[in-house]
Amino acid sequence: MWIIIILLIIGFFFLVFLGIAGYGIFVYNSFVTLRERVYNGKAQIAAQIESRWDAVTNLISATKQYEAHEAGVLENITAQRSSIGRDSSMMDIEENDAQLNNIVGRLIAISEAYPELKASEVYKSTMESVNKFEDNVRHSRMIYNDVVTQFNRKLRQFPTNFIGSIFKFEAQPYFEQTEQKEEMPTWD
To answer: If you ran DSSP here, which 8-state letter would residue 150 be given?
Structure first.
């Protein structure tokens, strides 16, 4: 009789252990999934910024015929753009984005100085592409911040915070609006 009771107690504790271990594995895997979604979100922002760079490069080509000196300066800046991706820090992405915004602002200033450029179909269609990519970047940033919120919340909530700290998961930074973004040039 005692053997049956001991076996039942051992079986009970084994099931409790399996439940705790299963829960730990589930939480660990959900952290890994969310962290990968954070990395993917960062890569999406980088891809959209790269597309915007390409559109601006085309805009510079259209600008060349109107003002060789200004377009040359902008082309040199564009040639210096850095490559960003999922492993880039938020600081790298924000610096690259700020550099691009500076170039776009200069292109807008050139178009104001040369009304015939602003009326050019190539300029108009390329500027529409730049706008489209800016919207895509904005959307990608929102998705990234949503995923970071999910990840950071799970990392701070009880009892998942224990598993997060055991496996050294760290809170991820949000993509925040920079001062330059607050003063973005208009496309008008």
So the answer is: H
For residue 81, give every residue at least 6 positions away whose Cβ sits within 8 Å of its Cβ, in sequence order, or none.
53, 96, 99, 100
Q: What pLDDT does residue 25 have? A: 95
Does domain 2-157+166-182 bear CATH number 3.40.50.720?
no
Instruction: Give per-residue pLDDT as tens, 45-85.
Output: 888 888 888 777 777 776 666 655 555 655 665 665 666 76
pTM: 0.69
Q: Is 18 exposed, middle or buried (0-12, 13-18, 19+ CB in 10 A)?
A: exposed
pLDDT at 188: 44
Any long-range contacts for 179-187 (C-beta under 8 Å, 24+ apart)?
180/98, 180/101, 180/102, 181/101, 184/101, 185/101, 185/104, 185/105, 185/108, 186/108, 187/108, 187/127, 187/130, 187/131
